[in-house]
Amino acid sequence: KQWPDRSGQFLHEELKKFTHAWSHGAISNFDYLMGLNCLAGRSFNDICQYPVMPWVLSNYTSEEVPDLTDITNFRDLSKPIGALNEQRLEELLDRFSSFDDPTMPPFMYGSHYSTSAGVVCHFLLRLHPFSSLHRHLQSGHFDVADRLFSSVQRTWEMCTGRSAAEVKELTPEFYCNPSFLKNTNELKLGTMQDGEVLGDVILPPWAKGSAEKFVEVMRLALESDVCTEMLPDWIDLVFGKKQQGKSAIEANNVFFYLTYYGSVDVASIEDEALRHATELQIAHFGQCPMQLFYRRHAKKHSRAMSVRSRRQTLSNLYDLNSEALNTKRSTAGEREGKVTDEMCDKHSEIAKQLPFSNAPMSYWVHLGAPPPGPHAPLVSIRLALSDRCLAVDSKGIFHFFRWAWKPEFKDESSDEDEDDGYTSEETHLATEIDIFKDSGCFVAQRELFSFRTIPRLPFSSATRSATVCVSQTLFANRSLLLVLSDGDGRGALAMQLVDPVKGAIRGEVIVPAAHADRITAMKMDPIGTAAGQGGVGGELAIVGSADGSVSLWRFISSHFWPLRPRLRMMGHAGASVHAVAVSSSLGICASISSGRCCLFDIGNGAMVRNLSPPQLEPDSFQSILLEGDNVVTTFADTSALSFSALGFIIAVCSTKIMRHGELIKEVTSIELFTVEGTHVSSRIVQPHEGVPCNLVSTIDGRAVFVCGGGKVSVLLVSTLQPLKLVDEWKLSTDGENNDPSKHVAHDIDFGPTIARPVVAAAACSEGALRLHALQGISKWSQENQRTSVTTAVGNVLALPAQTVKNALGGVGRVFNSTMGFGKEIGKEAVSAVKEHEGGGGG
Predict the structure, then answer these.
(1) I need a labelling partner for 346 at 20 to 30 A (CA). Which of 15, 69, 417, 473 fits?
(2) What beta strand segments (E) does 385-503 contain?
(3) Distance between CA 244 and CA 238 in Å, rounded?
(4) pLDDT confidence of 422, banded at 50, 70, 90?
């Protein structure tokens, strides 16, 4: 069961990778513990060796969320759960010292912290198949209600009380899956002696009855600095040096000898009855994980060193864990999307570190469409390779862009280790990270290739915007982008391979009659290696149609295309599908019509559940509501729909007040649901922002980018501060054309890879492209120039671009005022190329 076919070298190499990644901040505490469980032979497929996680918090009685910077709210992870009570420990030590049996070694704990019946089936009682397994162990019925899992606080008190049998640790569900706390299956669990009917688990007061909030706080506690500091001590107890031997005795961590991995050779027992009894003992009364470490586990590196080496994500830029724990409640104006001067002053310290709102002008560049106009808006965008960008406008025409970042290093001889923004390791707590320390400028242009026919989608409508989706994965030897679109307006699906470097369409296939009516929505999500996971890379695509059906397609990273979908799903009673979304990490997809949001399993296409539009609170229209008015809430007619990797769904709803058949007022709102169907919160969209065009979640699911009129908003995805405004990327500039309706963001992408976002690209109205630099772009650009083809181009274009920047005082006006500098730039570029060639020849 515990890696029988794996060599010790494999375990050593994998363990070394995991430990190095964790100690340098590349993976979270939760992911690291799950990795250790996997390497130690624990699996979700075996309840006898289910993954084990620690109790972290000790405060389950306060009314407010515990302060996760206060160590008194945490359990002492340097001690096993059975040693937290001094009186119980004293009794256990007396039994251990007086134990005298020649057939077995002494032990302190007769029970175990991870057993199939006492822990796994106990905690996961309300979920299938664990409820069936529990009944099987109890002769077909549930155990006595008083012995079932009913309260988090009561269970904690029992595990830290006087009972020698209660030494339970936790399962991973406490940190990632709130559904095990709810009796959604309405199981008849019985009545307790005090007359209380057993249903949902009683949560701590600070959870306010929300299982999602409880799990989120537990996860934040696990990832907190206090827990991170103590976590190596717990790893020593369960997976490391203090699991067995003299160190285990000193740490009061000795269990029954049959619970240890390799303590007895079952195959050598000749007595059939004794061997069967031994196997049952091992299987049902707990097993310790395989010992992975034989030395004390290393501490995690300091925050300063972790920032240098950890994988940069968008959530890291905002420190969203701290943002979610900010107990300051949002004002009414903030909930409705208004940012007042008072709020900016109140949060001035935080505002200084916002990547978009406070970025200098040199961090962004606006590429407008060439005259004459008007121009169709760009509706889809994708950053590709290291310096390319592909966009599609509403008329189905492809637009190709090329960009580069020319960094400026004030002191080239300075040590690269200073790029983290800290002055020293000792003072990093008092010194904020300067996320705007990347000096430089963008060099970007719209590529105009020679072509006989304009590269475009196979079909476009004069009355409707193009329905199109571009893959994140590069196909055909990692050089081409896959573009899906409506094939003929009657249900055909078009597939194209587009070369972002040459600006050409390399392949095109149209699958006729993929649906019975026109295609209205589509989304793609990377899988396998393309998503940073194992397996064959590629994309999952979900396609919605006006006939009310949804199809799921799988594209692998090769030249071969599917001619039929993997799954077809129904559920909208013939209503047109407005928006779709798919998540390979969650294993589900979603489709939305006016009155219903359907969730499907991407494994077999079964409908998991369907959601109805929530009723908006009447605060926004109570003043105009009259008796007899009809309030109708539906899902908005927009393609904006997104999954969060944390298990949330973000959708857009429209609430209309109808009076005698006439529309009095319409309110647009962003809605947050859990995948279990629980409505978490609403956020009203201001009228001048219009209906959101797209929703894009961060890779870790902690935030969502809302593309709309005048700006791209960054909202927090959390149950503690749901849909809280974190940052804004305003597209309109001061002075001219400041009307948000004239600067609409239709799509956004981050690149050059999802693992390392250093630039953001927004597809805007009037055919414009907006690029924005993120932290680390200078370092990435310097690394990329060593091996990239854009080295020569960047060096040639950077010199005249720097001249223009110095002359005009800002990159933002470069592309609006370059006509007078054209000849000078051309001469300077030619001169630079000749010098470069001459230097290369020498």
Answers:
(1) 69
(2) 388-393, 398-408, 439-447, 468-475, 480-486, 493-499
(3) 9
(4) very low
Buried b (16+ CB within 10 A) or exposed e, 278-296: eeeebbebbbbbbbbbeee
Note whether 684 and 666 are within 8 A (CB).
no
Closest CA to 483 of 513, 459, 461, 465: 459
R_g of the chain, CA atoms, integer Å: 30
Question: What pLDDT score was predicted for residue 313?
Answer: 66
For residue 771, the model assigns a pLDDT of 94
CA distance 519 to 386: 32
> Which two structure tokens, joined as six digits, stand for 728?
């804004």
List the single range of 354-358, 360-364, 455-459, 809-813 with lowest mean pLDDT. 809-813
Question: Any idea how long the chain is?
Answer: 842
pLDDT at 9 over 90: no
Q: How far apart are the first and last CA of the chain?
A: 64
Convert the pLDDT of each residue in 765-784 to its tens digit. 989 999 999 988 988 888 87
Q: Is the dihedral of CA 134, 137, 143, 148 positive or negative?
A: negative
Q: Give Dmax (Cα) for the chain.
A: 97
Query: Model pTM?
Result: 0.84
Query: Residue 677: what residue type?
Result: G
Distance CA 613, CA 652 (A): 9
CA gap 342, 333 in Å, rounded: 11
642 and 583 in contact (C-beta within 8 Å)? no
Cα dihedral 387/393/398/400 (nearest 10): -20
The rounded mean pLDDT for the chain is: 82
